[in-house]
Write a structure and sequence with these properties.
By secondary structure, the protein is an alpha+beta fold. Helices cover 48% and strands 13% of the residues. It has helices at 6-12, 46-55, 84-102, 105-117, 122-129, 133-141, 143-151; strands at residues 15-16, 23-24, 35-38, 42-45, 63-66, 79-82. Bound molecules: zinc ion (ZN).
Length: 156
């Protein structure tokens, strides 16, 4: 097995891993992003460091964006490279994209069940499934229609 780089090893100590989002447990900036100190570079945004550990250096001027809407999340699977333009567009499309492509019908049924149970908040449900709160809200607003749409799509 490959030896862990010290930075990777140190980084992992601050990450709470779960099935969905991997939450940053150290310093959180006022804007909601995690902060991590890197020798020689100073304070860095934790999700950017997570991306670099997984994929290598981030090209100049590019942003690392969250598919999951959770700024504390450092799960590399939930992160992708984008531009400033993507960042804005992302807010409108993410719920739909994550909802239609990533969620299995079984997950949607489970989300519906949790919503109806009224124990967990939408935010907590969203986090549990690694989707945005917008997606959960959308499912709540149009439960039947949503399930019908999913059923009609073979690939899901
Ligand atoms: Zn996440």
């Amino acid at each position: 097995m490959r030896r862990l780089m010290p930075i990777e090893e140190r980084f992992r100590k601050f990450v709470r891993v779960s099935d969905g989002c991997h939450e940053w447990t150290s310093v959180i900036r006022h804007d909601g992003y995690g902060s991590f100190w890197v020798s020689g570079r100073g304070k860095q945004m934790a999700h950017r460091v997570a991306y670099e550990i997984a994929h290598g250096p981030i090209p100049e001027g590019r942003l690392v964006l969250h598919r999951c809407d959770n700024r504390k999340c450092v799960n590399p699977v939930h992160l992708y490279l984008g531009s400033q333009k993507d960042n804005g567009r992302d807010m409108d499309e993410r719920g739909r994209r994550v909802g239609r492509r990533k969620l299995k019908t079984a997950c949607v049924s489970e989300i519906v069940r949790l919503i109806n149970e009224r124990v967990l908040s939408q935010e907590k449900i969203a986090r549990r499934f690694g989707v945005s709160q917008i997606t959960v809200s959308r499912i709540k607003l149009g439960q039947r229609q949503y399930l019908r749409e999913l059923d009609s799509r073979k690939e899901i």
